[in-house]
Backbone:
């Protein structure tokens, strides 16, 4: 957020009065909620209201790394890899639309391998990634040094995912908000939702919504419990830090043994990616930050004397079976949910928004979402 300009900050925080009615009420102004509004608007809906307890991309969406690791994450997605393929195409389309730069770059990801045995085992990994429809190759230490000259010696090589990308999530959020405001989408911030139904009861008053989307990230169960349904989603804190701005050093996103690292266009080198089951405990732990710095400086010795400019944390929405929950809330005809993406929220945001728009406007989607059905967790 610190790298945003004043105009972008204002866009993300400016609130509209709560309207009396809306076709679609979206609870959550994170990337999933914004993407749903974007594709619903593109499908022709003109009355959309986004409600959030803070501001746009104010929680996990603004705190995350912005890593679009389509190929690297495809192994975990398994049969859902087509969602990553669709999201990759949608990001290309978003980037092609004229508008402020959100730093979408297909710089590629280097997943470091420490030993020769790691290199041998990487062949199985490459096969699964290619089967999922993405590019990946195993490279040795000489090629690794050519691709990432600032990296310390001692690595056996890496798996290189050339199609994987990076973006600035808060800048993407500001661009989407600008686009949606120009289409008369309403943003109502600092509004707590107390009850969900044909009428949404909020701390700002009531609004009648024909259709409701709950996209409240790790807070989703706190909203859905008013419907008598609580999916097994909980927060997992992740911590990140950034150095002071530096001359260009990292050319790719680099996945180390424990954390990941990349460099913003502003020059800040960012690293982290802890996973902590601490509920909604905010803040950062100095021990974790020291661990991130230790690996960062071991991989990039030039950063040893460069101070940390800032550190922050966010809450990823973790679902117990490691799959998002997308679709109709059980027993509720016009209430949808999209949450539980864990570490793939930014990766799958566009395709999740497109799925929701398809379900609401067409009654169906051609993408494989059966394993993501909210009904798998009962009523």
Residues:
């Amino acid at each position: 957020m610190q790298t945003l300009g004043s105009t972008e900050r204002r866009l993300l925080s400016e609130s509209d009065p709560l309207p009396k009615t809306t076709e679609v009420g979206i609870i959550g102004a994170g990337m999933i909620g914004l993407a749903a509004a974007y594709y619903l608007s593109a499908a022709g809906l003109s009355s959309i209201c986004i409600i959030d307890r803070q501001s746009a991309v104010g929680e996990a969406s603004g705190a995350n790394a912005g890593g679009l690791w389509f190929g690297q994450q495809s192994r975990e997605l398994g049969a859902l890899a087509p969602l990553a393929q669709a999201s990759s195409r949608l990001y290309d389309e978003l980037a092609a639309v004229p508008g402020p730069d959100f730093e979408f770059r297909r710089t590629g990801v280097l997943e470091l391998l420490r030993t020769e045995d790691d290199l041998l085992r990487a062949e199985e990994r490459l096969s699964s990634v290619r089967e999922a429809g993405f590019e990946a190759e195993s490279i040795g230490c000489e090629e690794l040094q050519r691709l990432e000259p600032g990296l310390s010696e001692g690595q056996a090589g890496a798996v290189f995912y050339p199609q994987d990308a990076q973006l600035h999530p808060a800048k993407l959020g500001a661009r989407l908000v600008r686009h949606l405001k120009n289409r008369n989408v309403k943003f109502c911030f600092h509004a707590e939702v107390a009850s969900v139904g044909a009428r949404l009861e909020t701390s700002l008053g009531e609004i009648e919504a024909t259709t409701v989307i709950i996209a409240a990230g790790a807070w989703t169960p706190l909203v859905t419990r008013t419907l008598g349904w609580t999916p097994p989603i909980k927060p997992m804190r992740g911590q990140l830090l950034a150095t002071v701005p530096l001359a260009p050093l990292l050319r790719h996103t680099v996945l180390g043994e424990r954390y990941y690292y990349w460099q913003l266009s502003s020059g800040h080198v960012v690293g982290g990616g802890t996973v902590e089951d601490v509920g909604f405990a905010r803040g950062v732990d100095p021990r974790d930050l020291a661990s991130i710095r230790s690996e960062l400086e071991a991989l990039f010795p030039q950063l040893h004397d460069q101070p940390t400019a800032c550190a922050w944390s966010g809450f990823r929405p973790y679902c117990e079976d490691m799959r998002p929950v997308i679709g109709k809330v059980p027993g509720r005809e016009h209430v949808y949910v999209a949450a539980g993406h864990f570490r793939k929220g930014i990766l799958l945001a566009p395709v999740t928004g497109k799925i929701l728009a398809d379900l609401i406007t067409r009654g169906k989607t051609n993408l494989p979402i059966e394993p993501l059905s909210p009904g798998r967790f009962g009523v």
Summary: The radius of gyration is 21 Å. The chain has two domains: 6-64+169-232+321-377, 106-165+235-319.
